Each structure stands twice: as structure tokens, then as C-alpha cells.
Amino acid sequence: MSKPLAIGLDLSTQGLKCVVIDANTLQVQSEHAVSYSQQLGKYQVSDGVHRHTDGVTITQPVLMFVEAIDLVMNDMKQAGVPLKNVVAISVSGQQHASVFWSNDAESILSSLNASDPLVRQLETAFSVTNSPIWMDSSTSLQCRRFEQLLGSPEAVADITGSRAFERFTAHQISKLIYNNPNLLEQTSRISLASSFVTSILVGAFAAIDYSDGSGMNLLDLRSKQWSESCLLACARNCLSMKEDDVVDESKVRETAAWLQTRLGDPRPSYEVAGKVSPYFIQKFGFNPECRVALASGDNPCTLASMQLQKDGDVCISLGTSDTVFAVTPELPSTASRNPSEGHVFINPVDPSSFMVMLCYKNGSLTREKVRDSALGAQFKVTTTSSEKWKLFNDHLVSELAPPGNNGHIGFYFEFPEITPHIPISTTKRFGPDDCEVEKFPTANVDIRAVIESTALSAKSHMQRVGVHSRNIHATGGGSVNDEILQIYADVLSSDVWRFTSSGGAALGAAYRAVHSLRCAEANQFVPFGTVITNGGLELVRRPSAAATSVYDAMLSRYVSLENRVCSSFSS
To answer: pTM score, two decimals?
Structure first.
């Protein structure tokens, strides 16, 4: 065999992406993609999804996913990718999305015919034809009742790593079954989007991995098994959503057992699901010995692509929305954090540790809004984007606004915020005396404040979940701005490294495929860092001790003011 290859597939909201890497050097060889809207328009999706008339239900056709698999495989074949050299495959899937398999599914999967397309053979393989996805917010009632049944949001987060969120799979399952009880008789298996694709690749039902399973509100993060109390709460919601309903307790227990069976046993993320199905060998020329690793979610696979491996490694993605990923050896206590903020999953590359994720809606669009508001009078029609950011940076490093911003602190929520919870669009500015002010004295102050506030927020909320950074891996569009990265370095007292090549969930899945293969070859878990040594990081900024001391002293003020802003919106 010439050089061995590994493939990472990412089943996302808008399409199916594929990255092919050299399994030895880990270098990207080719990339391939299928767009649902552009190539599968017959499913009548908009931006890849079906938005229902209630405004909160959002689904995607399962057969669209199925057809995309054949299309991306054919694209690789037509592009001349030597699929006979592929030794490992893994999958990333949009988190929380669920697929309900019919009673015929297992026999169909095991007897796929290479002469027929997947979509034709799998037409009857699903008891639910439209999958609820992460964008769906139709299960608020199920979430609140789930938390009541478990005792509190904190109790749910203590078991599963997150409070009950509408997009999480437990609540989508209970809504579907409550609305259609026949699913209890018609469903043989429930997969996540990730394990659904893996099931097709191996021709049999594939297990849900620990990390993606952490995004369901069903997995006990300590035992790494389905939580009995969560299964019972989900089962009760499957049977009744009215407070005064009398429910047969034996039926609740029976439904909980049904759920546990249909979910299958969760497994460590590094395990192999099996060898590739004969369908892909005969149709596309895959090697019969090609191994398919257990899949995981898109966020866990993104973490794998960022090569976060040890305590103190933090990735900050500065994009349309900002996201903080971190690795921690201990399960963060709910006593130290607001369960409405952030998520804890089992680490996809080391099942003995955990990954923490904080999400911010106000990212690059908010930074641009502040930039344009503060400096718009200086822009001309011909001013380019790069020239605007150059002017932004000139003001950011101005002596008129040094580290600490002369005591000025701002909160800029162009959109309702997740972390912290702010339900409306608003801007709040505070002077050195902590009194609210309508505006800051100069544009420099606004510009520094919007960056300092996001960095201070990241630090304070990371501390609440027990994360203390040593190295920051920066990615996203905002990571090209060295002056912004300097503030993050100073606030977090950490070296900042930037990726020299694009990553993403598909690349993380490809890395995980190689890691799983090496674990299988060794017949034991092998540390991810001994297998994935691609590097691809450059040191771009180091913290200034003087600036860090200013921010350390400023943090408690920032937290107090943030609490003040949040409390002004509490009922």
C-alpha cells in the first residue's frame, strides 16, 4: 500500500464535509463537501433546514443526510482519492440531533447492495423521517418539567454536565414520543447524528460515544452510563406532560428500560465501531480492513482538532460567535458555576478527563458594531475592511486607553447573550467609580472596553468551572488580530498560539480516526498527544506582567458589575 490515509466526515447543519489526511504525517491531502441547499434542493430546505410554522421547531430530512453520504463518497472517488488506501474513518456530527431507526433498519443495514443508492435502500429504515436538530427550541415545557422531576437545574447539571436545554436530545425524544406514542412500537434504535452515520458506514448499529452522549441530558458523567433518574424523568415526559395526569409507575419504568435499550450502551470515544461495510468496499473501492472509529459530536471533534490535551490548554475561537473550549481533569462542581452557563462533556480524546465549553453570541459582529460606531465618522466609502481594523488597532493600543482602560468597563450585547444570560440587546458602560455612564470620553475607551470585557468574561467564567489557562490556542477570524490576542494574553496570563492551518470538526474527526486506529493496534488506550503531533501552532503573543497585574486587580470589579447588569434583567 502507498501512503495510508484517514478520513474525517462532518455531518453539519448545512452540509457534509470530508477531510482526507495522511495517516502518518497527518497532513491534509484533500477536502470535499456536499451542500444540502445547493446539491439536494429537492428536499426543499432553506439554509439546510426545515423551519416549521410554529417558529420554534427546526428539523432536517434524514434521507437528505443519507444521500449526502453517497454524494461525498462519489466526489472523492471521482477526484481520484485512492480509497483503497484509507485505513481509518471517523465522523463528527452536529450535536444533539437524533435519528430514530425503524424495526427493519438493522436487517437493511446489514444487507446493503452496492448496485443501488443508499437513499433508495434506506427509505423504510426510519420511524421518524425528519430529525430534530440543535436549532430546535420547541421543548421548553419538557425541559422545565425534566428539571422539576430531577429537583432543580443544578441537579441536572450535576449529573449530566448541563442544565436542561431545549436542543438536548432527551427532551426531543420525549416530545416526539409524547406526540406519537406509536414510536414505542416502531423504533428499534435511537442514534445521534454522529452514530447514525457510523452505523451506515459499518452496516450495523454503532454505539453512542461518551463525549457526544454528554450532550443529551441523559449520561451520568461520573459513571459514564445512562443515568437511571434521567431516564425515568425522560420516560415520564414521554407519557405525560400534564401536572394532574395519573401515570402508571410500572409504565414509567417500562418506558425507561425501553429508552435504555434503544440507546444502547455508551462507549469510550477512542474505540473502533467495526470495519467498513461491504457496500463501501464494492461501490467506492475501500479497503476491507479499513476501520471505522466511534463518532463524536462536532464540538468534541473541534476540540480534538485544536489539540487540547492537558489541564491549562484553552482554545478561544473568535468568530461570529465566540467559543471557549478547555480541558480539565476534574468534573467541575455545580456549586461554583451557574448551570445556565456552559457545558461539561467527557473529553473525546481522554475519557478520564472532561471538556468545558462556554458559548458567547456576541463575537465578531459585536466587535464590528462597536468599531463602526466609535470610528465611523473617520471612514470613507472607499475605506477597506483591513483599513478599518488598522484604525481600530491604532485606537486599541493608544496611550489614551492603557491596559485597564483607566477604570472604564463596558458590556456590549448587540444580541441577547448566553454567557452571562442577558435576554435583550443592550450596552452598559461604567466609569472608574462604578457609576453607569451614557458614553465614554473617547473612542479609544469604547474600543478597548469591548475587547477587555470579553477577555475578562472568559477568565471569570472559566474560573467558575475550575479552568485556569496556561496556553491559549486561538482560532477564528478574529485570531488574525495580534492586538486583540495581546489583551487575551494579558488578561489570562497565558501564551497565545495561533493555528497555521485551518482546523475544524472534520479534521478533528480525521485525527480521532488515526488515534482510534493506534489504540486498536496497541489493544489499549494510547495518549492522544503521542499520536497526534501535527503541531501547526505558532507562538504569537506572551503576557506582560505589568498588564496582567492590572487585570488581576480589575477582575473582581468586572464580576461585580456583570452581576449588577444581569440582576437588572432578572424577574
So the answer is: 0.88
